[in-house]
Hints:
This protein has a domain at 34-84. Helix content is 70%, strand content 0%. The model has no long low-confidence stretch (mean pLDDT 89). With 89 residues, the protein is mainly alpha-helical. The chain is elongated.
Amino acid sequence: MLSETYRPNMFVKELKMYVEYLKNDIATFTDELSAKNIKKWSAFKSNLLDGIAYYQNLFNETFHSNKNEIQSDIIIYKNEIDTIEIPVL
């Protein structure tokens, strides 16, 4: 018998990993800040938000047994991404 315990979707787990990576990469950056770094972080953040929009649409259009939990998890990480501030020169 399968457990009724909610387990995060693979996309949600991967999203969490990428959010933590971006936050850590910015927080631990010690070199001189350059336009290249800012562009890299901005593109990474933008790609995460684009991926979230894609998956939110996909989960809305398809049947998934944990759709509401997945959507809630995605919104949590989207809000977290929105709070990540990219340094400026």
